[in-house]
Write a structure and sequence with these properties.
The protein has one domain. The protein has helices spanning 8-35, 38-41, 50-54, 59-67, 69-96, 102-119, 123-142, 147-167. By secondary structure, the chain is mainly α.
């Protein structure tokens, strides 16, 4: 019988996905700075949150969030990971895990990763958050002892990723 508890294997997979995501971000940033002309690279870091990319379309909410550090942190560290992981990992992958071959799961993970990156607002985000989305999709499948364990694993990595961005002065 399969163990459905959250254990050491889950923690190891969480740390692997988080670490690989940040290694990729550093590699992409360095490649962009080395390859692209200075005028192209001298831009602000693209919005790293779906919430940040779309908030300006809702002026009342944008004003409230920008006025409150607490609300902004809640939206970045709790709301975004919970909602985005449900949308981009839990819903699509629940339909393919165990019911379709690994190739189908891989295609769904790639498509969700690309959409996840695109939803963050800029073509560069497809390379940055798109890879993070791939890592989160891999994590969801790898930690699939239960839907809850998979989902919580992804939310934890997503929240850690967002926390690191906030700690570095981003978002």
């Amino acid at each position: 019988m399969e163990n459905k508890t959250f254990g050491l294997r889950h923690v190891r997979n969480i740390l692997t996905a988080y670490g690989l995501s940040w290694i990729w971000v550093v590699i992409v940033a360095n490649i962009l700075q080395a390859v692209l002309p200075r005028a192209v690279v001298d831009f602000e870091l693209p919005v790293l949150s779906v919430f940040g990319a779309w908030i300006d379309h809702f002026p009342a909410m944008a004003t409230a969030v920008k006025a409150s550090v607490g609300l902004s942190l809640f939206m970045t560290l709790v709301f975004a990971p919970v909602i985005e992981e449900a949308m981009f990992r839990m819903l699509p992958l629940t339909f393919v895990i165990g019911q379709h071959p690994e190739k189908v799961r891989a295609v769904v993970i790639v498509i969700c990763g690309i959409i996840f990156g695109w939803a963050h607002g800029s073509p560069i985000n497809v390379f940055i958050q798109g890879f993070v989305g791939l890592m989160l999709g891999w994590l969801y499948v790898k930690n699939n002892t239960s839907q809850k364990a998979s989902y919580i694993s992804c939310v934890i990595v997503h929240a850690l990723y967002n926390f690191t961005i906030v700690a570095m002065g981003g978002v």
